[in-house]
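Hi C.,

You asked whether I'd gotten around to modeling the 575-residue construct. I have! Everything is below, sequence then structure, no commentary in between.
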Amino acid sequence: MKFSFILLILIINTNYCHFQLIDSIGKCLSKIFCHGELLHTVQMSGMFRDSKTFVDMPTRYSEIQVLHKFSLIDRTNFTQLQQFIEENFLPSGSDIVTAELIDWHQPLSFLTRIKNFNLRHLANSLHSRWRKLAKKFDDTNLCSRCKTSAFLTQNAFIVPGGRFIEYYYWDTYWIVEALLISGMTQTAKGILLNFFDILQLNGFIPNGAQIYYLNRSQPPLLIHMAYAYYKHTSDIEFLKNNINFLDKEYEFWMNYKSIDVFKNGEKFTLNQYRVVSDKPRPESYKEDYLNGQESGNASQYYSNVMSAAESGWDFSSRWFKDPMDIRTIFIDKIVPVDLNSILYRNEKILQEFHLLLSNEQKANKYKNLADLRHKAINSVFWDPVVKTYGDYNYEMDKVQTKYLYVTDLAPLWFNVTPPVDDEHLLKRYKSILFDYVSGIPASNINTHQQWDFPNVWAPYHHWTVDYLIRSNRASQALNIAQRFVNTVYCGWKKTSNFYEKYNANEEGKFGYGGEYVVQEGFGWTNGVVISFLNSFSNELIPSCDANTENLSSKTNINHFLFAYLGIFYFILNKF
């Protein structure tokens, strides 16, 4: 696959920072899946309720043939357009099939430590979901010149679920953690090798395993995944053979996503989520196009929504001037505290890895980089008046402290020592950490965006609980783990599903807001719950409200009634 680098230098009339912008790291050239009149016509027609459906449909013929046939139809005629799609495209995900997991087995070793019968049942159900979510790419049903949007990697992978039929970058971290707990080291290793192949091909890891994600990444957690794998397996040969990929991933973020911030007379090199585009996201084309036209500057809007998608927090009031209006998105002016905390941890891990491999020079390099970033985090992201961390707005030279976001705690998650006692920070965030039945909401402002109140997400529960355990706050860690496991358990009892997000106010209820309906599956939710069941196997006790329990009981009774009626019907017909 060809890719190109287009480098733009942006000069900012400010004393606070300067940085480089890049447009399209590994640019997608497809005139079907990434840009062009065909994509615009189909997505704006409203033929598909979810814009992602179309760009996940492989072609039945070569791209040239499909584009020629498109040129012959009346594109304003919906019936002709619909017929054209049916004749020239396969159903969404036709190149993705269920994979066999050779290292999936029952029973799970840690199940014997779970005292509660209901939680053992939950753990078994979660473990069984890996087989449902395990996929692989298979292009055998496609013609030799047919076009697909998928990266055809070699090994099996775990998808989040629902509309997310391919694997995603940052989601996979919590999946890998849980696969290792579940004894599925070969599957975890194969997933890492897939990432290394994509990194080798494109020079970075895209948002997800589709070519239309080629101009953006996601939170850089590959190094965290490799660390989890090494700690679980002690596979030094794996580390030795692949350390260059981990260095390469780090270098990508430093070469193409860095920003120099000047604070108190010092220059600090930090990182941003940053994408430049003059087109809508292919998988959310119609939504972006309409909002872009209303924003007053469509290209700037497209760049900002793609940058926010790169953050994983798509979307949140963290990125808006007006917290209630996505059209005011300005993430290009924000340096995120969580991204830089993740990269600090990456530098510490790479230091440790290179010491293990006797690469002392590189180990010292990463140690120095980590020391510099530690100082930068406490200089740039710290508000000395409010005494808290937050995202830094370089245009205003100000830390965001108006609202509470759980990501403000990211430096604590990744072992940054704050300027004050950490108890002071925890007190400020006490309301979102401990006041809600389902766990920790993403923020304390309700904007109807999915990464704001009242939505509860698995990833930061894992990091927060891990931090509380490390800081000798075991009871607080258990409190958070209990509430999150409980809401997942109660939702499962009620619907037999696991969801990507939950509602902080209502036990077991899935979350809402954003561009699409809530998805079930769900990779990182399953992964974090497995992690908590492993860590707190003797302490967690599920408890649902009466309505959930009653519904569950009625469901079980109905199952028995249907079973008995079936047996009775069989006997009558037999005799």
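If it helps when you're writing up: The first helix runs from residue 37 to 44.

Thanks,
B.
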